[in-house]
Task: inverse folding
C-alpha cells in the first residue's frame, strides 16, 4: 500500500496538506474522514491516529499525525523544492517560527470566528452573543496585524521571496473566516496582494478545488440532534 492521506477539506490544516501534496506531484490515496459525521472516532481511523484528528498520514506501516509534521515529512521524503522548507539554517528557522506561532494565534482566532459566525448557527443552531463575536473578530484583527508586521513585512511571502509551507498554512487558515463572510483582506491591501501571490504560486484551480467544500459550508443542512449534541460538546470552547 502506498501513501495514504486521511483528510477532511473542511479542515484548514487538511487543506494545506492536500494542496502541498497535489502541487508537488506526490502520489497518494485520499481517505476521506468526515468530521461532521464523527468518522474520526471510528475504530478504523483510531488505528491510524489515536488522537482522533485529521490530517493523518499512513505510509506503509508508518503513521503520522499533526499537519506540520506531515508537511515536513512529505517535503523531506519527496524532496520538494527547497523553497517549501529551506535547508538554509536561518531561512528554515523563519518557517519554523511562523509554524510555532500560528497554532495559538491565527488558528485560534480563525477557528473561533468561523464557528461563531457560520458553523455554530448553521449546524448547531447556536447563536453566540454579539459581544462574544465582536471580541473574537477583534482578536482576529490583532493577529492579522501581527501577521503583516512580524511575518510578511515588505516581503513577497511570509518568510522571504519564495512561497513556503508557512504561506500554505496561513492562507488555509484565513480562508476559514472568509467563508463566514469576514472581510479579512478588504482593508489590508498588503495581505490582499500576498493572497494573490499565494494563489498564483499554488495555481488557481488547485486553490479553488481545495476550498470548494468550505466555501459551500453555509449551505450545509443542520445536523441531526444526536450528532449536534456530540459536536456541540466538542467545539464548545470555540463558541465562547
Result:
Amino acid at each position: 500500500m502506498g501513501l495514504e492521506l486521511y483528510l477532511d477539506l473542511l479542515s484548514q490544516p487538511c487543506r494545506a496538506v492536500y494542496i502541498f501534496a497535489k502541487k508537488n506531484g506526490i502520489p497518494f490515496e485520499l481517505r476521506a474522514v468526515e468530521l461532521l459525521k464523527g468518522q474520526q472516532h471510528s475504530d478504523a481511523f483510531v488505528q491510524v491516529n489515536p488522537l482522533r484528528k485529521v490530517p493523518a498520514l499512513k505510509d506503509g506501516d508508518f503513521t503520522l499525525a499533526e499537519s506540520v509534521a506531515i508537511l515536513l515529512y512529505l517535503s523531506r521524503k519527496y524532496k520538494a523544492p527547497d523553497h517549501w522548507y529551506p535547508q538554509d539554517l536561518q531561512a528554515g528557522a523563519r518557517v519554523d517560527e511562523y509554524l510555532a506561532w500560528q497554532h495559538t494565534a491565527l488558528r485560534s482566532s480563525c477557528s473561533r470566528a468561523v464557528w461563531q459566525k457560520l458553523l455554530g448557527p448553521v449546524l448547531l443552531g447556536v447563536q453566540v452573543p454579539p459581544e462574544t463575536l465582536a471580541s473574537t473578530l477583534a482578536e482576529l484583527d490583532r493577529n492579522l496585524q501581527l501577521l503583516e508586521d512580524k511575518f510578511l513585512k515588505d516581503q513577497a511571502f511570509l518568510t522571504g521571496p519564495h512561497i513556503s509551507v508557512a504561506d500554505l498554512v496561513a492562507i488555509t487558515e484565513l480562508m476559514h473566516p472568509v467563508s463566514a463572510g469576514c472581510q479579512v483582506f478588504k482593508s489590508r491591501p498588503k495581505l490582499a496582494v500576498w493572497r494573490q501571490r499565494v494563489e498564483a504560486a499554488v495555481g488557481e484551480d488547485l486553490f479553488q478545488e481545495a476550498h470548494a467544500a468550505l466555501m459551500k459550508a453555509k449551505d450545509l443542512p443542520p445536523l441531526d440532534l444526536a450528532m449536534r449534541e456530540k459536536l456541540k460538546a466538542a467545539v464548545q470552547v470555540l463558541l465562547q
